[in-house]
Design a protein that fits this description.
binds pyridoxal-5'-phosphate; 38% helix; 412 residues; seven-stranded mixed sheet
Length: 412
Amino acid sequence: MEYQTLAVLSGLPEDPHGAVGLPIYAVAAYGFKTLEEGAERFASGEGYVYARQKDPTNRALEERLRALEGGMEALVFASGQAATFAALFSLLRPGDEVVAAKGLFGQTIGLFQQVFAPMGVRVRHVEPETDRVREALSERTRAIFVETMANPALAVSDLEGLASLAEEKGIALVVDNTFGAAGALAKPLQWGAHVVVESLTKWASGHGSVLGGAVVVRESPIWANYPQFLEKDARGQVPWGALGPRCYPERVRTLGLSLMGMALSPFNAYLLFQGLETVALRVRRMSETAQSLAEALLGHPKIKALRYPGLPQDPAYPMARKYLTSGGPMLTLDLGSQEAASRFLRAIPLPKVANLGDARTLLVHPWTTTHSRLSEEGRLQAGVTPGLVRVSVGLEDPGDLVAWFREALGEV
Ligand SMILES: *Cc1c(COP(=O)(O)O)cnc(C)c1O
């Protein structure tokens, strides 16, 4: 089935009342009629026990995401950060290393530096090119971590090259596919990534109304290379032997949801489930608008550099052609200085906010906001300059947007 068919039909549970749509289970715990039934549910992990671990509303969202990303299993979390943490924590042990892209989402860098480093996990940041990553690998590297599209540099990762390198080394390629819009713009698992993590807060929600995150896992024998799946667990079973390729997603559920409790509210799952029905339509329209905005502004005398992966002259264009369904909803303008960016943002009648994927066009000055906690050198390395303005294109009329951008540029 094609994406848009899955987006509206996948994951819908059978409802005893014939409800068409997703009911919200505002329920914390699920009972059993007999001791034997309870014992069976605990032993098998099938069915529902307690909503921290699994509940029917969240499960429907997991089924839909699994279908849309093309995975074997999906798990949902309270936020994108929770999903990223659970996915990596389930893979890494003290002494392990990760090779990660430079210029990742700021709080992902924070997770590596402030959470994983003190636990004894070392991270090396390199340009996310296959050759650079290969050079940075060591005997202790247990994961490669990149984003589908770097924020805000808008470089698209060579997913196929990185996946085959990871396969060759027997380690996991983990891709933050937030910019891939739940598979509507990019599907890293299809190119061989082992794990996708993503923030559903952005394009999946689509209206800036709710937080959520997901881990989606491809079926793979790679987990047999990790000692935690070959040693007896708390139940006395060897996860790889007992569960095969499901051992990894089961560990993510046990650690991230059962033990750490980073569970998504079913009310939020309901909104995200609905958001997924229109994400591909929204992203296509946003991409068309972004393309016309980029074309209309290209060569404007007040713009020092314009980046849009859908323009043939853009450095990201070849990778975007290969991995994305369109040029995408993101573009950046470098106006040359913080002063120029400040005048532009003051003049434009659109929200200035550190978020993405909303129905409204959102603008942000990464130098003083999203990336302000990095050193100057760190910011420049991530492609953030003092004059840079990041634009997440929304659903407004393209003509109105072009007019507003031109007027605001006139104030620079
Ligand atoms: C927003 C974002 C996250 C974090 O997601 P939250 O839902 O805000 O926790 C992770 N990665 C990328 C690329 C993001 O844009």
